[in-house]
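Figure 2 data, in text form.
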Amino acid sequence: MYLLLGRPRRLVTAERPKPRCILAAAAIIFLVQAVSAFSQSQQPVILVHGFGGWGRADVPGFYYWGGLTDLEGELRKQGYCVHTAAIGLFSSNWDRACELYAFIKGGRVDYGEHHAALFEHERYGETYPGVYPEWDKDHPVHLVGHSMGGQTARLLAFLIRHGDPMERSVSGNDCHPLFESGGQWIRSITTLSTPHNGTTLINDIALIDGIIKAAMVAMATVVESELFPDFDLKLGQWGIMRYPDESLSSYFRRLRESNIWSEDERDFSLWDTSVEGAAQLNERTPADPEIYYFSYANEETRTGPFMGYQIPEIGMLAAFVPGAFFLGSYIEDGTYKTDESWWSNDGVVNTISMKAPFLGSKDRVVDFDGDP
C-alpha cells in the first residue's frame, strides 16, 4: 500500500523563486522526519538520487540533495543517520539496484552473470567500502528516492525479498547474495517525484537529447577536469570510463556517441523511465507487506488559456521549460494510453505518474492521514 503524502506546489516567497533542488531539499527534510517518527531505533536513511544525479562528494560545494546546502550534513546535526548514495547517473534500475546494494552493504558490484550476458556488458563493477556493513533483516534501512531513485529503491526491495531465479540457475554456488531470496531488509521507501508509471517526455527523443546535451555542456562548464578530476558517470559496465586527464566535455561527448542511447536498448534509464518500461517494472515489483511506502507528487505547471494545456509556472528552471510544454499537451494512443490527466507536470515527470504505481500494478493507494 502506498501512502500519498500530498502534492506540494512551487515554493512562493517574497524573494525570487527557489531552484527546484532547494524545494526538494525542504520536502526531503519533512519526509525523513516522518520516516524517523515511527522508527524504533537510529536506522540509517539512504538518499537515492535520480537520473543524472551524483554523490555527495562528486561535486564539492554543490549537492544533489540540497543544492548549496548539504542536506545530509544538516540532517546529521539533527541526530539522523543519513547517507547519500552514489550510483550510476544514467544506468538502468537493475544496474543501479546492484550498485545501491553494494553501496550500503559493501563489496564489489555484481550485476549478475545472466543479466550481464543478456545485455552484453561486464558482470562486475566497482567495489564500495559499505556505509552500513551490518545491514540485514535485523538491521534494516529506510530508502528515500528522488525521481528515478524511487524506482531503483523498489527494485532493490524486490530483489532482496525474492532474488532472481535466472541468476540462481545460471550462477549456482557463485550467485551473489542479492539474487538469493530471503527476508526483507528495508523498513520504508519514500519517493519524491518518481516516475512510477514513466514519463511521456521519453516519447520525444529529440527533446530528451537536447536536454541532456544542454545539461552536459553546463556541467562541463562548471565542473571541469582540473577542478574535479575524479568525476565519473559510473558506466564502467559498458566500458565507458573517463581517461586520465580527460576533460568532462570530451568524456560527455564519448558518452553521447555510445550505442547505449539507442531506443532499442532495454538495460538503460531511457527504457526504465518510459511508460512501457515503468509498467513492466510495476508488474514485476508489487508492494512488499513488510515495507512502509510513502510517495510525494509535485507539479510546476498550471492550466493555460484557450486550449486548456498545462504551461510552466513562472520560476521554472529554464532547462525544464521545453519539457513542461511537451508534457502539458501530449496524448499517446498506444499500449498504455495517456490523456489530459497526464498533462500536469514538473517539466520532467507527469504528476499523475508520481503518485504511485498503477500501470501494471494492483497496489492500493491511500491519502496519508498521519498514521502509517
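Caption note: The first helix runs from residue 20 to 37.
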